Amino acid sequence: MRAENVGKKFPKFINNEETSDNKSFFRHPQPAAGDFWALRNIYMTLGKGEIVGIIGRNGAGKTTLLNIIAGLLPPSEGEVTVDGKVSSLLTLGAGFQDEFTGKENIYLHASLLGLKKQETDERFSNILEFSELGDFINAPLGSYSNGMRMRLGFSVAIHDDFDILLTDEILMVGDLYFQKKSFEKMQEFKKQGKSMIIVTQDMGVIKGLCNKTYLMEDGKILFEGDTRNAIEQYEMLVNKKRILSETSRLDMVKETKRWATDMAEWGEKRGTGEVKIKGVAILNKWGIRANSVRPKDKVRIRVSFEAEEEINNFHFGVAIFREDGVYCYGPNTKFDSLTLKRMGRGKGNFEFECKELSLMPGVYYLSAAIWDQNETLAYDYHRACYKLEVAGTPMFGQLLCLPYTWGNHSSVPSAKIPDKQGCYPNLNYLIDKWEAELKSDSIILESIKCLNKYGGEDSVFVTEREFRIKTDLKRNKQADKPLILWVGVYRSDGIYCYGGTKELSCREINSEILVCPRLRLLPGEYRISVGVWDPGEEKFLLFSHGLVRFNIVSDKLDHGTVYLEHNWKFKVPRGRKR
Amino acid sequence: MKQLFKYKELIFELTLRDLKLQHRKPYFGFLWMLIIPFCTAIIYKVLFSDFFHATSGGHPFFIHLITALLPWNYFASAIQRASRSIQDSRNIVGRISFPKYLLPVSAVLVNLVNFLPTLLIMELFLVAFKVKLTMLIIFLPLVILIHSCMIMGLAFLVASLQVIYRDTEYVIQVMLMALFFLTPGVYTLEELATKCSPTFMKIYLLNPLVGITNLYRIAFIGDYFSVLPKEADFFNTLINPALWSVAVLFIGYGVFKKYESRFMDHLNF
Fold first, then answer.
1. Chain A residues with CB inside 8 Å of B89's CB?
2. Residue ranges of the domains in chain B?
3. Does pLDDT of A15 surpass 50?
4. pTM score of the predicted model
5. How far is CA B153 from CA A277, B82, B149, B246, B266, in A?
């Protein structure tokens, strides 16, 4: 089977508010000016004995593609050539008649599939056995349960002769036992060397049967190749799309800014007082109380409290602010789906453990809070009362301390922390240059692109996933002095989150990719800045400051700007048992 | 057309399906197919013959009526059924890959199966009314063939048009009503010939259904030749309907094939 440049368009229907008054009863939906391409530019080949999977979200065009391959829909452009008999399990039991008995329906359906009566006679007992319907086969189909109906449809369809089988999300028919049997039947077909195209949402099936998988999205093939990679990509896509829906994204961005308290309120201790926070202790990697830790060290923040009343449905939270008021991170137990139901009177504590405090050197302040269920009422809330110092030299307000590498896919990642102060550009030059650009004759910035793990260009990324920034620079040959390329990620309000530098080579064309294995930023809009720094003259040759945008989304709610991997531990007083 | 033979099993199953669906549940089942046409005939007889004193040539009015009415029923119900055949089977058309033209074919066959037994009953009536039976009845299969070919062609045409223009079925209803009165069912040809201008008569006789009605009557009623007006000659009684049948069959099939690939686009929404 071979599909070349296949496309399918449908007329787009407008359905606006004006036509939905009583007039629309007489009026058909009018095709809008444009057409909707359900499929475009599909190339696909299927050799004999090959089994490929197609995955993708609903509406990605999978079924349309199968319909075209099966010859049920004519393609609007392109061509599909099929060598051999195609059997399609697109809809089970198509053409079943409720009034007929199972047996009559088998014969009718089989003849629609192109089987001779004699052939159906031969297979009838197999079909009956496979469908496990027993005596019900002589009962009218209308009396069947949905599962029985599907089982019957499936049984008839797979007893057809075919060279290529197209299945569309139908392997999940019937109970577990039947599903297993169907799966085994598929494997049997695989052994018989029949070709199959499987469309399913069941990744287990895809993993078990397909050597090659296509990932479809918006009528295009997004990825083709190894099944495991395709599934991984699909999961990422689904995750992203779910989060990407406009409202939830706005919520999420809003949520990250919640409780970014005014610095004027710092030091306040407020609460209804059922529970009181007695003290906050910062423990360094040896478990010793300390006020100062080193970047990337393990840190534990232990908050001890005493409950004077019994409370129900509460959660713990801490927050980290930077000296200048930047809300770094505000995790709480609710975001991490920990349920805390009941607290009795007595003393207890909770601990926020951060394996790697990926914050740049600087002075930070901690808040600690015990909240009620919906974060409307604080039993006790100490705002930025506790100081935490990360030792080292701060770097122009950079927030995150994360390893990065330069290179492309093949290079071995060697994590390094940006600490070469000597050749780091002085970002103070950029302070009042937000959304500005500087161009240079000797070196030209051609493009800045955000890439995902697979090298595809993208504008939306997921927290904690790999992230790459590709910059293309063109350099004049005469200029051979050492230059430093700097790439930085800013939050949309101008907070410098993360950056990396690299010495530029003297080659004419420089294409550099900054790889960040785990991007620990919370949802929101971010900007990319790129600059070329001349260390000799201590000035920027060129920069583009905050002109390229991208978004970050996450599947979890969180407060703040950065994400720190963490754990919670708590000891809740039980009170006296009655 | 050769494929028709290849798919005979499928045609059989489809026709069987329709017949079963139609006749399984009613208590009288298939009997209704025999009862209804004759009941209609009785009503028409009372209305036209007893009230309006319509003439019926040399033989009883009831015989005159049923020899036209039964073929007409076959024609009308087959066309109506065929017009919806694709649309109503959208759950099959869109799901399973099989030759779609079999659907109108089976729609026509179902009506043929319904029609043939009524002819047998009609024969009983003919005997009861002591109408002379001649050797001409052996041409009946030929008449039915011509008639069926024409129905088949129209069936292809309306089935495919109905998918694309859903108004077709209503147009068909109106057309069928008009055609019914343009065929000599409740009146006789000779009466029409005496009352109308010769030009009108010429055009009127070009209607193949007139010829086909005449053919049925010739086959069934022994002395029908004697009451045929001279305008109804050999050409417009036999050749004209035959030509029409073949032409309609090819045109209908051609139209069907042309639109076939677009069916799915129109059936989905």
1. 95
2. 60-267
3. no
4. 0.62
5. 90, 10, 6, 8, 22
